[in-house]
Design a protein that fits this description.
This protein is mainly alpha-helical. 62% of the residues lie in helices and 4% in strands. A two-stranded antiparallel ribbon has the order 1-2. The longest helix is centred in the first third of the chain and has 30 residues. The chain has seven helices and two strands.
């Protein structure tokens, strides 16, 4: 059982504004993703001699060269999927807040405020997974994080189901994806012996100018 904790909760004005409520998770998610990619690129430059930096798009250090479990989706799926899920969770937060705070039932109002705290916590857990896994290369901590994230989100969905059914249903796709992401995180960690530090290799970029190679160590490298 949780309670409303103002110091761990986003401001009321965010939940009350539909545009802000929807765009904030999207913006934060994009910012974290971009920052992690910039960090990995900077580490690549620091670890290679200048001869491998020029041209930057011809040779890259691949940080995605990991042994992967079955049913992994192609990399192009993650961006659109997370954008849609961030938008859905933002709308769910707006819907639950506006419906719940307008209720004359004090129990519903209390549940609404609890949900706001849970939403903020799950968003924080969501945003730290990518730095844990890719930047810090800590698959154990990243997997523990996503398991906690899934649990908090499941409880949040239950709380919101008592406030507004539409808000709760908006969280169902997110919960389903988190379950799949937990499998990917745990299985990838296990297949790589919970050590990502030595899963790097030099390869020619095959990502059409992005500078990032999409081959995995358990696949034959693509020829340019």
């Amino acid at each position: 059982m949780t309670t409303y904790i103002p110091s761990l909760t986003l401001p009321d004005a965010i939940f009350a504004n539909p545009a802000v409520s929807i765009l904030l998770p999207i913006g934060l998610g994009c910012t974290v993703g971009f920052s992690v990619r910039r960090t990995l690129h900077a580490i690549n430059l620091a670890n290679y001699p200048p001869s491998l930096h020029i041209p930057a798009k011809s040779t890259q250090k691949t940080y995605y060269a990991l042994k992967q479990p079955p049913y992994r989706p192609p990399p192009q799926v993650f961006g659109p999927t997370w954008t849609s899920l961030y938008a859905l969770m933002g709308y769910a937060a707006y819907r639950a807040w506006t419906t719940g705070t307008a209720s004359l039932n004090p129990t519903v109002v209390n549940l609404t405020k609890q949900g706001a705290t849970l939403f903020t916590i799950q968003l924080g857990l969501n945003l730290i997974w990518m730095p844990l896994f890719f930047s810090l290369k800590r698959p154990v901590e990243a997997t523990a994080d996503i398991i906690a994230l899934t649990g908090v989100t499941g409880y949040l969905t239950y709380v919101w189901s008592q406030v507004d059914s539409v808000a709760a249903w908006c969280m169902v796709p997110y919960l389903g994806w988190l379950g799949f992401a937990t499998y990917l995180s745990a299985a990838t960690g296990y297949l790589n012996n919970w050590n990502l530090a030595d899963k790097e290799r030099e390869s020619k970029s095959s990502d059409r100018g992005s500078g990032w190679n999409k081959d995995y160590v358990n696949e034959a490298p693509k020829e340019d």
